[in-house]
Amino acid sequence: MAGSVSERLYGVPGAPWLRRAWNYAQLMRLDRPVGIYLLLWPTLWALWFAKGGIPTLKLILVFVAGTIVMRSAGCVINDFADRDIDPRVKRTRLRPLAARRVSPYEALALFLVLVLVALWLVTRLDRRTVMFSFIGAALTVSYPFMKRFFPLPQFYLGAAFGWAVPMAFVATVGTVPRIGWLLFIITLLWAGVYDTLYAMVDRDDDLKLGVQSTAVAFGDMDRMLIGVMQAMVLIGLLLAGRASQVGWPFYLSLVIGAGLFAWQQWLIRDRDRNACFNAFLNNQYFGLVVFAGVVLGLP
Questions:
Q1: Is residue 156 situated within a structural domain?
Q2: Residue 90 has pLDDT above 90, yes or no
Q3: How far is CA 214 from CA 39, 202, 221, 226, in A?
Q4: What is the domain count for the chain?
Q5: What is the DSSP letter of 86?
Q6: What pTM was estimated for this model as a whole?
């Protein structure tokens, strides 16, 4: 035979434990790392800005590992919250919980393990950073339920995704200066950009199911409002760069980043689902380009 059903459907060998491991990996979205990158780049921006150069290896390792673990935990609790909605949405109906390949109890157990790992990681840092981490954890856990009633959940997601930014400043300098809060706002707005693009993919399904999103709330003003947020992100980064006296590579990265934003606008000109998803994916390169500018622009 050409292979077992599990191999043909999920691309993994037929051994039960391998199928289970793959289901857990999919539940944590480890097969789709773009979400990790979108969290990681602002965290690294903040670490480099806070230090004024290369941060310690310990901080880099803790924050990179923490980003991966908390993003995974956020995906698990999101799918748990949406386990009765995802089966009715074309893009999400094959997710492990939606397809009933993982039980809700397994998902909660996995979520608990990930939170405990994240807690262990943050306790490698100082007490003040640990206290800040509880706010981030609360934002992550509560986000999936916000779209039931909050019309702009993408900004709540931005706060959850961006909370690593003030944490990075606290861990580095013991407090959050104005530039730290500026970078947090920038990260929140950037999340509003890429997650609105993501929500545009599901807008028709969300309207039928009564799920809230900025794509639904913005309506036919979506492209314009995304453009406004893109401009605010670039202006905010420009102000952050001037406050930190970075060199020309950083400003060059903003020019390239502006070009990437313009390309995203072109992609979504007809609001095609696949094009909107590609525009969402393109944001990982925006984050990378800005990070390269930060690294090369700081002393």
A1: yes
A2: no
A3: 19, 11, 10, 10
A4: 1
A5: G
A6: 0.90
Residue 255 CB partners (closer than 8 Å, separation 6+): none
Is 7 contained in some domain?
A: no
Separation CA 213–CA 225 (nearest Å): 14
pLDDT digits (tens, 9 = 90+) for 110-122: 999 999 999 999 9
Domain assignment present for 191: yes
Residue with tokens 């809230």: 212
- pLDDT tens, 144-190? 887 777 888 889 989 998 999 999 999 999 999 999 999 999 999 99
Q: Are the CB atoms for 187 and 160 separated by under 8 Å?
A: no
What is the distance of C-alpha 169 from the center of its chain?
A: 19
Amino acid letter, residue 247: G
Q: Which structural domain, as residue segments, surrounds residue 108? A: 15-297
Burial 72-103 (b: 16+ CB within 10 A, else e): bbbbbbbbbbbbebbeebeebeebbbbbebbe
Amino acid code (one letter) for 291:
F
Instruction: Give the span between the Cα atoms of 292 and 106, in whole angstroms.
Output: 39
Q: Which two tokens stand for residue 243?
A: 């406050």
Query: What pLDDT, in 10s, does the model give residues 41-83?
Result: 999 999 999 999 999 999 999 999 999 999 999 999 988 988 8
Which of 213, 199, 182 is closest to 268 using CA atoms? 199
Under 8 Å between Cβ of 213 and 97? no
Contact 233, 193 (CB under 8 A): yes
Q: Fill in the DSSP letter of residue 100.
A: T
Token pair for residue 216?
């639904």
Q: Please check whether residue 2 is in contact with residue 8, taking contact to mean a CB–CB distance below 8 angstroms.
A: yes
Residue 130, in any domain of the structure: yes
What type of residue sits at position 24?
Y
For residue 106, give the CATH number of its domain: 1.10.357.140
Distance of alpha carbon 281 from alpha carbon 51, whole angstroms: 29
Token representation of residue 192: 């509003």
| 6 residue type, one letter | S
